TrEMBL record:
<dbReference type="GO" id="GO:1904680">
    <property type="term" value="F:peptide transmembrane transporter activity"/>
</dbReference>
<protein>
    <submittedName>
        <fullName>Peptide/nickel transport system substrate-binding protein</fullName>
    </submittedName>
</protein>
<dbReference type="InterPro" id="IPR000914">
    <property type="entry name" value="SBP_5_dom"/>
</dbReference>
<dbReference type="GO" id="GO:0042597">
    <property type="term" value="C:periplasmic space"/>
</dbReference>
<feature type="domain" description="Solute-binding protein family 5">
    <location>
        <begin position="100"/>
        <end position="437"/>
    </location>
</feature>
<dbReference type="Pfam" id="PF00496">
    <property type="entry name" value="SBP_bac_5"/>
</dbReference>
<dbReference type="InterPro" id="IPR039424">
    <property type="entry name" value="SBP_5"/>
</dbReference>
<dbReference type="GO" id="GO:0015833">
    <property type="term" value="P:peptide transport"/>
</dbReference>
<dbReference type="InterPro" id="IPR030678">
    <property type="entry name" value="Peptide/Ni-bd"/>
</dbReference>
<dbReference type="InterPro" id="IPR006311">
    <property type="entry name" value="TAT_signal"/>
</dbReference>
<dbReference type="GO" id="GO:0043190">
    <property type="term" value="C:ATP-binding cassette (ABC) transporter complex"/>
</dbReference>
Length: 536
C-alpha cells in the first residue's frame, strides 16, 4: 500500500537515522585509527581546525555530481552553478539567500543614462585568480560571447533586450538596449565576467578549472568525488572569503550524505532526504525553505491526445497532490496554485487551480474522447521524484487512465524527449538559480528556445504566440503595476493550457552545524552558499 501512516513515516525516519549513525560511528572510528582529522586538498584540516575562523576549512556534502563544466556561458548543472557563485562575479549579483541584487564587480549599481543606455563602473583593484586585473575589455568579451549565436549559450534567452556592449575606458562599460527594459540592473546578474585571455587561450581547460574574480578559486575538481577551493587572497569585493579553503564532497547517496554530517566530516549538506529531516533535529540545524523549484508535468503538444487541453487538464485534476505532499514529501511541498510559489514577491493565484477532482478529470477525458487512455509517464530517477511517481500512477489509474512508469536518468530521458519519443513527462525544474524575476522564470520554459521547440513542442501555436507577445509587452512596460498585470495574464494562460505546468513547489531542506559554521543560511535554490560564512 502506497499510503504511509504517521507511525510508518516515523519508523522509516528512525531506521534511516540509525543507519546514518552507524555509518557515522564507523567513519569516526576509521579517522581516529588513522591518528587525526582528515586532511583536505587545500592542506588545512576540516572545519574543526584549531585556528578556526578565517583560517579554517569548510566542508560540505553536495548531492549532485559535476554534470557539466564550470564555464558560466554554458554551465547548467546544479553543482557547478552553485560553485560558480563563489568563483565568478557579475557586475551585479543576487544574494543567494535573499535574492536581492547588490553591486559585485561594479563599484555601484549601474546608472541609467537614458531610456536605452546604461553605464557601469568597475570596482577598483579587482583581479582574477591568475593575478590579472579585471578590465572593461573582459566585461565586453563576457557579454559578447553569450550574445554570439555560434556559442549556443543558455544565458542568451535572458538578454533579448541587449543590443551592444562597449568599453568607454578601461574601467567603464556602456550598454545600449534595443528597447527600454526596466529590469536591466538586476537582469545582468546572469552574466559572469571571465578573463578574455584565459578563455581564448584554452576554453576547454577553463571549463574544467575556471578562473574568476570571486572570493574562492577552484584548485581541484573531480567529477564523482569533490571540488576543492582556496581563498582568493587578492579579492577586494563585498563578499570576502571567511575561510581559508572549502571542500565540497560530491555525495549523491542520501544516507552517506546524512552520515557525513552526523559524523562531523562535513558541516553542511544540501538536499536532505525528506525522511531524515525530523530525525536530524537535535543533531544539526535543519530548515526547509520554500522555493520555486518544482515537479512539473510536461506534455508533447505534437502528439494526440495531448494537443487537447482537456486531456492535459484532466491529468492534473486527477492528481491527489495533498497526498503526494504528505506521503512522498513528508510535508515539504506546496500544491501549486500558480506558476509561482506563494512566497514569491510577485505571486498571483492562477485563474485555473487544479484541486483534486477525479470526477472532473473523468468528465474532461470523456469530452475529449480519451476515456480509457493509456499513458507512459516518463520521469527521472531523482530521489524525491522517485517517491512521487508511484502516487501519480495511482491517481491516474483511479480515473481509468492505464499508466506505465518509465523511470531513468535525466540525460537518457531527455534524449527521448528531444527526439519526440514521449507523451507525458514528470520532472524537476528550477530556473531560479539564474534569477528570481517573473520574466526570467517564465522565459526559461516559455520563451523562444529549446523547451517550446524541442520539448513540449507548441512553438508557433496561437497560445505560444500569445504568451511570448505578453512577455515582450511586459518587458517594455515601465509601470510596475501594468507590468505585473501582464505577467498575471501569462500565468493564467499557462495554467489553463497546462502544457508544462508545476504540480508541486518544493521546500528545500538543508542541514548544518551552527557550532561549526557562523553566518550560514539555507537557500531557496539548489545548492549551498558559503559567501560570508566562516568555519567557527
Amino acid at each position: 500500500m502506497l499510503e504511509r501512516t504517521s507511525k510508518e513515516v516515523d519508523r522509516r525516519g528512525f531506521l534511516r537515522l540509525v543507519g546514518a549513525l552507524t555509518t557515522a560511528t564507523a567513519i569516526a572510528g576509521s579517522v581516529a585509527a588513522c591518528g587525526g582529522p582528515s586532511s583536505t586538498a587545500a592542506g588545512s584540516t576540516s572545519g574543526g581546525d584549531a585556528e578556526g575562523g578565517s583560517n579554517g576549512t569548510i566542508e560540505a556534502g553536495i548531492s549532485y555530481a559535476l554534470s557539466t563544466g564550470f564555464d558560466p556561458m554554458t554551465s547548467s548543472g546544479a553543482t557547478p552553478v552553485a560553485a560558480n557563485l563563489h568563483v565568478f562575479e557579475g557586475l551585479v549579483d543576487l544574494d543567494p539567500a535573499t535574492r536581492e541584487p547588490y553591486a559585485a564587480l561594479a563599484a555601484a549599481m549601474p546608472q541609467q543614462v537614458d531610456d536605452t543606455t546604461w553605464r557601469a563602473r568597475l570596482r577598483s583593484g579587482a583581479t582574477f585568480h591568475d593575478g590579472s586585473p579585471v578590465t572593461a575589455e573582459d566585461v565586453v568579451f563576457s557579454f559578447g560571447r553569450i550574445l554570439d549565436p555560434a556559442n549556443s549559450s543558455l544565458i542568451v534567452q535572458f538578454l533579448p533586450f541587449l543590443d551592444t556592449v562597449t568599453a568607454v575606458d578601461s574601467g567603464t562599460v556602456e550598454f545600449r538596449l534595443k528597447y527600454a527594459f526596466p529590469l536591466f540592473a538586476t537582469r545582468i546578474s546572469v552574466v559572469k565576467v571571465v578573463p578574455k585571455k584565459v578563455v581564448e587561450a584554452d576554453q576547454k581547460a577553463f571549463d574544467a578549472k575556471p578562473t574568476g574574480s570571486g572570493p574562492y578559486k577552484v584548485v581541484e575538481a573531480t567529477r564523482q568525488d569533490k571540488i576543492a577551493f582556496q581563498r582568493h587572497d587578492a579579492y577586494n569585493g563585498p563578499r570576502p572569503a571567511k575561510a581559508a579553503a572549502m571542500v565540497w564532497r560530491l555525495t549523491s547517496d542520501p544516507t552517506a550524505r546524512v552520515s557525513s554530517l552526523v559524523s562531523g566530516r562535513v558541516q553542511a549538506i544540501e538536499d536532505v532526504p525528506y525522511v531524515d529531516v525530523a530525525g536530524l533535529k537535535g543533531k544539526a540545524v535543519t530548515e526547509s525553505v520554500e522555493s520555486f523549484g518544482n515537479l512539473f508535468l510536461m506534455f508533447n503538444f505534437a502528439r494526440k491526445p495531448f494537443d487537447d487541453k482537456r486531456v492535459r487538464q484532466a491529468l492534473h485534476y486527477a492528481l491527489d497532490v495533498d497526498k503526494i505532499v504528505a506521503t512522498a514529501m513528508y510535508g515539504n511541498g506546496i500544491a501549486s496554485t500558480s506558476y509561482l510559489q506563494p512566497s514569491h514577491p510577485d505571486y498571483h493565484r492562477a485563474a485555473t487551480v487544479y484541486a483534486h477532482d477525479p470526477e472532473k478529470a473523468r468528465a474532461l477525458l470523456a469530452e475529449a474522447g480519451a476515456s480509457g487512455l493509456s499513458v507512459t509517464l516518463l520521469t527521472t530517477n531523482t530521489g524525491w521524484v522517485n517517491d512521487i511517481a508511484p502516487l501519480i500512477k495511482e491517481s491516474w489509474d483511479a480515473v481509468g487512465v492505464k499508466t506505465t512508469l518509465d523511470i531513468g536518468d535525466s540525460s537518457g530521458q531527455y534524449k527521448k524527449v528531444d527526439a519526440g519519443d514521449f507523451g507525458v513527462m514528470a520532472a524537476p525544474g528550477d530556473p531560479s538559480v539564474f534569477g528570481n524575476d517573473v520574466d526570467l522564470l517564465l522565459r526559461w520554459f516559455y520563451g523562444e528556445g529549446v523547451w517550446t521547440t524541442k520539448r513540449f513542442r507548441w512553438a508557433g501555436s496561437p497560445e505560444d504566440q500569445q504568451v511570448r507577445g505578453l512577455l515582450d509587452q511586459a518587458a517594455r512596460t515601465a509601470d510596475a503595476a501594468a507590468r505585473s498585470a501582464l505577467w498575471n495574464q501569462v500565468i493564467d494562460l499557462v495554467a489553463e493550457q497546462a502544457v508544462l505546468y508545476p504540480v508541486v513547489h518544493r521546500k528545500l531542506p538543508t542541514a548544518w552545524s551552527d557550532k561549526k559554521l557562523a553566518g550560514f543560511k539555507p537557500l531557496p535554490t539548489t545548492g549551498l552558499s558559503f559567501l560570508g560564512v566562516s568555519a567557527a
